[in-house]
Design brief:
Length: 384
């Protein structure tokens, strides 16, 4: 049997209302498009996180397949048409090209894909985040595949004892590097601790693992919308696929990093830092200050190419404390209002509307030499 490919392809094609949620009629249109063109697929499932929709597709055509990407693009276009009729906010937001050309990468949607040999029982988790950026997966991916304090299997499962290889992309310079853990852990952390630039793209098992070292066990969408659009149009809310069990981290080990609401970029106007809150699918709506950033976890068994699921994995009271903690951190950060570090540093706001505000002061600035006394003057705009 040819290998199975799982493709998780996402786009924001219109928010209901504002940037908080998706509209059920848009999801219906996308599902019926997939139903009508399901001949290239083994199976599909459509889900949402905040204002983003994710198509989870299984097929036997490999990653980056033109027909699969075209199908996803056309499905999003049929959703966009409904979003336009309903006047949803930012209808077609992530479809940045007038027409499909070869691959959704570079056109706006994000894609995480893995081609692998299906095992007798093959559990996977598809994660989807809203109000953040692809690097938001760096922290949990490192914990899952690199940190023995998170993943007991790194210590007690002989198949995982050699560790994992991380493929890291430098999304500013368009280059990549492969780093092995545990021995390269410090270099890996030196890079991925800067998640706006260095992003974990894939993770592979190492020799000694009972799974094939050439088949990725995790994949993250890394598309950056600003690079496609040339201006801020919305955040690059990412998706990720993680394979689990039988020589790979157990489902509980894959979810465990989310008991800590780590700080990520992308809240309100893509311009603020906020805590990552793990939520059930029912609670993925981002309404408080357009957030806080959220993550859902859809669990599936892949069985003969079918998606058995989803199991809504964060729908567990054991994550209530993380949600509570995230709300407390959100309160604390919100008290800062427009001050950093709640607001992102200036370099990261380059592509937002903030520079336009700065430009309005360009004529008002007076040059001075701060090594010499600077005379007191009547402030510009003061009342005489
Ligand atoms: P607009 O209201 O001008 O769209 O900006 C706010 C926002 O939501 C940014 O995407
Ligand atoms: P999205 O990236 O989820 O569309 O949100 C944009 C935004 O500006 C929210 O405040
Ligand atoms: Mg949006
Ligand atoms: Mg979004």
């Amino acid at each position: 049997m040819t290998k199975i490919t799982v493709s998780a392809i996402k786009a924001d094609v219109g928010g209901y209302v504002g940037h908080s949620d998706t509209h059920p009629r848009v999801q219906d249109a996308i599902e019926s498009h997939l139903e009508d063109h399901a001949d290239v697929l083994e199976n599909y499932h459509v889900t949402s996180a905040g204002d983003d929709l994710q198509l989870i597709l299984t097929h036997r055509r490999g990653s980056d397949d033109e027909r699969i990407h075209e199908l996803a693009w056309n499905a999003f276009e049929s959703g966009t048409a409904v979003a336009q009729d309903l006047g949803l906010y930012g209808a077609g937001q992530d479809l940045l090209s007038d027409a499909f050309s070869g691959n959704v990468r570079g056109l706006g949607p994000g894609a995480a894909e893995i081609e692998f040999t299906e095992r007798p029982s093959d559990p996977i988790v598809v994660f989807a985040m809203d109000k953040t950026e692809p690097g938001a997966f760096n922290f949990p991916m490192y914990k899952v595949f690199g940190d023995p304090f998170n993943t007991a299997g790194l210590v007690i499962d002989p198949s995982m004892n050699e560790g994992f290889t991380f493929e890291v992309w430098d999304i500013e310079e368009d280059r990549r590097v492969f780093l092995d853990t545990p021995e390269d852990a410090h270099e890996l952390l030196a890079l991925i601790g800067a998640p706006s630039r260095y992003v974990i793209k894939r993770v592979y098992p190492r020799e000694g693992n009972k799974n094939d070292p050439d088949e990725p066990v995790a994949s993250v969408s890394t598309e950056k919308l600003v690079d496609v659009a040339g201006e801020y149009v919305g955040k690059d809310d990412p998706v990720a696929i993680v394979r689990s069990q039988s020589g790979l981290p157990a489902i509980g080990e894959v979810l465990e990093p989310f008991t800590f609401p780590h700080m990520v970029s992308g809240w309100m106007r893509g311009s603020h830092v906020g805590p990552m809150m793990p939520v059930s699918m029912e609670h993925s709506q981002t309404s408080r200050f357009d957030g806080p950033p959220r993550c859902i976890a859809a669990g599936f068994q892949i069985t003969d190419g079918n998606l058995v699921g989803p199991n809504d994995l964060f729908d567990d009271v054991a994550f209530d404390r993380a949600r509570e903690q995230a709300s407390e951190q959100a309160d604390y950060l919100r008290e800062h209002g427009p001050f950093e570090p709640h607001r992102l540093p200036l370099g990261e706001l380059e592509y937002t509307t903030l520079p336009e505000i700065m430009d309005t002061l360009s004529e008002e600035w007076e040059h001075m030499d701060s090594s010499k006394p600077v005379a007191q003057a009547t402030p510009v705009g003061s009342v005489e």
